[in-house]
Amino acid sequence: MHLAAYFPGVNNTTVWTDPRSKSQIEFASFEHLVRTAERGLFDFFFLAEGLRLREHKGRIHDLDVVGRPESLTVLNALAAVTERLGLAATVNATFNEPYELARRLATLDHLSGGRAAWNVVTSSDAFIGENFRRGGYLDPADRYTRAAEFVETARELWDSWTPDGLPRPFAHRGRHFDVAGEFTVPRPPQGHPVVIQAGDSAEGREFAASAADVVFTRHGTLEAGRAFYADVKGRLARYGRAPEELKIMPGVTFVLGDTAAEAQERAVEIRRQQISPQNAILTLEQIWGVDLSSYDPDGPLPDIDPEPESALARGRVRVADRYAVAEQWRTLSREKGLSIRQTVIEVSGRQSFIGTPDAVAAELDELVRSDAADGFVLVPHLTPGGLDEFVDRVVPLLQERGVFRTEYTGTTLRSHLGLPEIVWKG
């Protein structure tokens, strides 16, 4: 089983009101979480990215995280306080260029002794693109073609130095990039930093099968996980790849208790903290596309239809069919007698694994044995101490089951993940 730790902040699972919640930009917070993950023998530490603070009704959403440091800068600093833990940065392939990003990733790989990873994400959002010189607009159909060529170009740059330290000129001529020159950084210790991909569309799955080493997915249940696992792994053969060359790791949350009842009670309280009354109304407005501030969070859902197009929220994932989602939520609310807040909690405030440490360890083990995942990216609900309890109480049980390492046997992230070595293409 492979395990990774996600730094909480760029999502609504983080509980900011808890007295134990600390800063999401101070170095001490990052250091605490990576030291915990390395103590737990995790494969890697994972930073998300936000290139613009999200807005709602023309204002920065004050329940969102305010401040998102640049990922690679943070990871270069964390390389100095860790020895074996992989360091993964989410970096956008739409708003960066291959030469510069390849240099930054190769530098991290050298400074960390071969522990760098790149989570490739894309965007066609002109709102985010306003922060960039060329306006940022990219047709959705071009997102993955650019990303695929971006990864291909970066790998050409990393291969432009020979393994014995000799630089060679490079040249790439393609649809999205036309670059030539000499790369300034010697070949990375891993050959190529590990490539992670998180898209779930048909294009995203195909991109993962063709170019990724790890897939970060939302499919954390047995049935959905097995379907996703079979689909993506089934695409590998057409690219000459074996199933073990791609690791599938869903993002999951957890709540532990000494008894099942205690864990459930804690989970209910965490859900209520995650979905405040204000956040419930805001979430509803993102679906309906209209101002619902006059509605009572403890009252029924609106009986009006959503607006098909709305600019109420900017910087968030677009809802493809607002009416269908609204109908689904209203049906759920009627059947279970749920208020607005209770409905939002039901559909978006859910923990993946709830129970005693032994029960959680058994369930994680079952998903891996059932080909629903190769491992998990754990998303704590607290910054920075939310991972401590899992490392102290669940990891030893996984080790007793013989499904998780008791020590690091390699020094690079590729070795942790059991990925094949990169053969230099001279």
TrEMBL record:
Enzyme class: oxidoreductase
Alphabetical list of Pfam families matching this protein: Bac_luciferase (PF00296)
Protein keywords: Flavoprotein, FMN, Monooxygenase, Oxidoreductase
InterPro entries: Diverse_substr_monoxygenases, Luciferase-like_dom, Luciferase-like_sf, NTA_MOA
Luciferase-like domain boundaries: 22-369
Protein family membership: Belongs to the NtaA/SnaA/DszA monooxygenase family.
Organism, as annotated: Streptomyces lutosisoli
Annotated NCBIfam families: FMN_nitrolo (TIGR03860)
GO terms, molecular function: monooxygenase activity
Protein name as catalogued: NtaA/DmoA family FMN-dependent monooxygenase
Lineage: Bacteria, Bacillati, Actinomycetota, Actinomycetes, Kitasatosporales
EC number annotated for this UniProt entry: 1.14.-.-
